[in-house]
Each structure stands twice: as structure tokens, then as C-alpha cells.
Amino acid sequence: MNAIILYLKRLHKTAGLQLSINIIGMVISSLLEGMTFLLLIPMLTVGGVLLSEPAWENRLRFLNILHSLPQASSLAIILTVYLLIVVTQNLIHRAVTIRNAEIEQHFSRQLRYENYSALLRAQWSFFINRRTSDLVNALTIETARVLGGISLLLQFITSALFTLLQIIFAFWISPKITLFVIACGAMLAFLSRGFIRKSKQLGSRTSKLAQAYLAGITDQLQGMKDIKSNNLEPSRLEWHQQLTEGTMQEQLDYVRLRLTSQLLYKIASSLLIAGFIFTSFRFFPSEGPSLLIVILLFARLWPRFTSLQSKLEQLASTIPAFKALQQLQHDCKLAADQAITLTESPAPGPGHWFVMQGIEVRNLSFRYQPQLPVYALQNISVHIPAQGMTAIVGKSGAGKSTFIDILMGLMQPESGQVLVDGMAITNDNLIAYRRSIGYVAQDPFLYNATIRENLLMVKPSATENELWEALDFSSAAEFVRKLPHQLETLIGDRGIRLSGGERQRLVLARAIIRQPSILVLDEATSALDTENEKKILTALHRLKDRITVIVVAHRLSTIQNAEQILVIHDGKLVEQGTFLSLSSEKKSIFANLLQNQEAQPVTVYTL
To answer: Mind telling me which residue stretches traverse the membrane in this protein (predicted)?
Structure first.
């Protein structure tokens, strides 16, 4: 019953008025369906069966008019009424079914919107601690299970209303017999609680297995090259077999549970019906005609009882999915980025904030887990001048990417400030600030679409000239022109049909096309060969006099022309200066990093 209440609250919130109207329609439809069965009474009355019983004389006085008519006329009237009721009931049932479908689809759209919009509103830190596959599982598999639960709920309401009205009709015919049957039904419902609990437990197992399967499949598809190069196909297939075996057993357990509950319910129902008939004839012998009608009525109701029980079990199995989505929305709400509003969606275009003087960081500190004493960044203060290149270096895990995330406004510092031209970044101006930033990651992300569509993603209004200008600046125009379809070339999933350097330059072009005031490259050249790296650096050299370039660098040879270099070590800014000044200090961390890289050939670029 808790499953029904949980779903009803959520459904009423989404479709309150429509749901109320539909419930009224269900009541009328069930009432008319019951009336078609109760037309047996006037038929038996016309035949003189029920009127021979004293108990029915007062109850059926409204049918006395039929006795004043010929039997054929009375039968014609009854059959006409029957046809009218059947047609009306089917029309109402059709309207109710269509409205139920509308409610389901509206709920589906609303639920998907709420889930996805909640994710979009969440801060970047929310995604750092979660597997992408878990979020995909929630947005697809778990959502589908919840939508199935909503469909079951509407079916349950329809069956429950029909059953209730039939019980009322039966009570009107014979109160004592009906009370006896209700008591038997209540006893069956009480005994079936264990099956509902078990269904809920199996539903939780379904969620966990689906989550594990999607996570594993996602990881392995992304790492298929490693799997093949290391000959891991047998072990991966064994993993797949084990997991699907568990999924199969879970589904079979659920089928066995449902069939067992239905078997026991039908056996118990048969015993109760037999006992009901025996008791009725033994203790209520004077109600023979009433007993006949009640038996026929409850013969129709017992399958409904079984159906209600089955739907309750199925509803219970979807509750874990429903709670998982509620928890996801709750977590997203706690991690919501207050600066983001999805009610307005301005078209991407030039940044709203042009940096004139520079970016200043004052006493910045940050912890991923505020309850722990470990700082990712601590007491950092620095000025990043506009229209120049600032490089950020340090060992892996030093805090470089965290610093970049805070500079970009993706995460908020625990203490300290980020100021642009002397103005602090707050929720009021954060969106304008973000729209002034172009970002190129180490692992370039491209959509499975054409080159044109990937570029227009950030600026749909861009002209042909703007597209080619951005490609020229990023040193990508040359290879794009050589492609058979040029801008209309499909590049595959994550740009797999392009080389690493081509993908990187294409992402750089996409960042440039927004005409950003700040360009951030997070180790964007670390995986490139010398030739492609030089092309990227040439593009940056052309850009740095126009915009503020911030580079997180792994290869120190690529930042020799930076106006300043920031060295971060264990979350602290420990050194700051030019390439020449830092490399000349033999005991500096930068010099040590440089010395470690000099063991390999270093290409020096003159731009």
C-alpha cells in the first residue's frame, strides 16, 4: 500500500486535475459495467423468479411497471437499456483509456525533464564523484521502470474502483453474504503481504544489477582498444556471463514469485469460494435467488482480486527505481548551481565580459571534503594579466585542474575570491563570465555529427566566414579542406574518424568561434605529436595578443613564450615567473621538473 501512496502523491502533483477527472470517469465506467450485470435482476423479475421471494418485493418495486406490460415488451425495454448502457460504458472507457495514456505521457515527459534539468543545474563537483554510467542508468532504465509503475498504478485504480462498486452492488443484493466474502478477501490480502515485500527486495536487486551491467559495458566499450591489444576478450566475456547469469536468476526469481503468489491465491480463492457456497446454502438457505446473483457477481470479481494482487507486487518491484530517482533529484538539488537558470536560454555568442586588466585570485582555498583537513588548494593569491599567456605547471595531483575549475567558475572556493578587472565573481555575473570563456580539454569532446554541426553547437548563428576563420586560427582549416565533404564530414563517435591532433584543433576552433575573452587549455597538447603540438602552439601565439590564454602544461617546452608561469605544488602556489627566470633557479621546483624532462629530447619552438 505504501507503493500506491508514494506513486499517487507524485502523480497527483503532476496531473492533479486530469487525474481527478479521470477517476470520476473510471467510477462512471465501472458503475455502468456493473449495471449491465445487474440487468439480470429485471430479466429474472420479468420471468417471475425474484418476485417470488418476499425479500425482493420491496427492493424491486421500481420494476412493477414491467409487469403491466407484455413480456415481450418488457424484454425489449430491458435489452434496449442494456444496449444503451453498454455503448455509453464503452465510450466512457475509451475516453478514460485515452486520458490515462495522456497522463502517462505527460508524466513521462515531466519526469525526464525534471531528472535532466536537475543534472544540468548541479555543480561540476557533483559529477566528479559519480560514474557517468550510473547517471545514464537513472535517466534510462530506472526512469522506464518508474513509467511502467505509473501505468500499473492507473490500471490498479481502474480495477480497484470496479471491484469496489461491484462489492457495493453485491452488498445491496445480500449484505450478509457480501460481508462474509469481504472478510475472506481481507484475510487473503493480509496473507499476501510477504509476496509484496519480496517483490520490493527483488526490485532493489534489479536496480543494482542493471547499474552494474551498464557501468561495466560502458567502461569496456570505451576501453575496447585496450581489451583487444591485451587479449582480454575471454576474461571480459566471462565477466559478462557471470553478470547476465545473475540478472537471469533475478528475473526468474521474480517470475517464480509472481506465479507462486498467483497459484496460492487461486487455490485459496477456490477453497474460499467452495466454503462460501457451502456456508451460504447451509446458513442462508432463504436467499437462494440472491445467492445465485451474488455467486455470479463474485465469480467475476475473483479474477479482479488476483489482478489487484499481481499489480501490487509489480508496483512494489518498481519502488526502488522510484526512490533512486527521488534521491538523484535530492542530491542534485543539494548540489545545485545557484547561478544557473534554465527558464531562459540565450543563444550562444560572443562573451558578455571582455577582460581588460586581468584576473585576480585572492587567498583562495578549496577542499573537496570540507570535513577533512586535506586541502586541494590553500591560500593562493595571484594576478593573471589580460591579453597574454599564463601557464600553470606542477606534478600530477598538485591541484592544477582544480585551480582551473575554480577560475572557470565551475566550482566555488571554500574561502577567497576570484575577481575580473577588480569585480568579484558572484552568482549575479557568473553566467556572463562563463560565456566569456573558451575551454579545450586534454581529452577533446566532439559529438557524433558533422564538423559544421560541432562548430555551430556553441554559436548557431555563426556564418560560413566565421567558421572558416575559426578553423584558420586553430590551424585546422588545411585538413578540413582536404576532407571529401569538408564541413559536412561526419566525424564519428567522439571524433574517432579524425586523428588526435585534428580533434584537438577542431575543439580549439569551436572554442574560438565563440570569440571568448579567456581561453583555457587543460593539458590540451600533452597527447599530441611534435608536428600537431607545434600547430596548436602557432594558433595560440596568434591568439594571445587578442585574448587571455591560460594553459595547464605538462610539456614545459611548450610554454617558453608564456608571459608568466605559475608552479603549484601540493595545492600551494610555490613559484611564479617567466620560463627563463624559473629555469635559472637550479633549486626551484620548476627547474627540477624541467630537468626531469630533459632526459628526453626536447623540441624548442621559436614563434
So the answer is: 21-51, 71-92, 152-173, 179-196, 263-284
Cell of 101: 495514456
Query: What CA dihedral angle connects 294, 298, 301 and 303, to 10 degrees?
Result: -160
Tell me the torsion sign for CA atoms 283, 284, 286, 291.
Answer: negative
Using DSSP's 3-state secondary structure scheme, residue 606 falls into: coil
Write out pLDDT tens, residues 553-566: 877 777 878 889 88
Architecture of the domain whose range is 2-334: Up-down Bundle (1.20)
Directed axis angle between helix 288-334 and helix 175-191, to 10°? 40
| Alpha carbons 44 and 50: distance in angstroms, whole number | 6
Q: Would you say 577 and 560 are in contact if contact means Cβ atoms under 8 Å apart?
A: no
- The total number of residues shown for the chain amounts to 607
Q: Return the beta strands (E) in 432-517 as ranges.
A: 437-440
Tell me the C-alpha distance between 527 and 544, whole Å.
Answer: 22
Q: Does residue 538 contact residue 475 with C-beta atoms inside 8 Å?
A: yes
Please name the residue that has the C-alpha cell 501512496: 5
CATH code at 351-436+518-527+550-607: 3.40.50.300
Residues 346/367, Cβ–Cβ less than 8 Å: no
Span 442-515 CATH architecture: 3-Layer(aba) Sandwich (3.40)
Q: How far apart are CA 179 and CA 18, in angstroms?
A: 34
> Three-state SS across 453-467?
HHHHCCCCCCCHHHH
Residue linked to cell 492507473: 154
Among 202-216, 341-355, 541-555, the least confident range: 341-355
| Residue (of 237, 247, 238, 251) closest to 213 by Cα position | 247
437 pairs with which residues across the strands? 518
Average pLDDT, the chain: 78
Contact status, residue 348 vs residue 431, Cβ threshold 8 Å: no
* One fold for 2-334 and 442-515: no
Question: Hey, what amino acid is at 88?
Answer: T
d(CA 308, CA 186): 13
Domain boundaries, the chain: 2-334, 351-436+518-527+550-607, 442-515
In angstroms, rounded to a whole number, what is the distance separating the alpha carbons of residues 582 and 142?
A: 54
What is this structure's pTM? 0.71
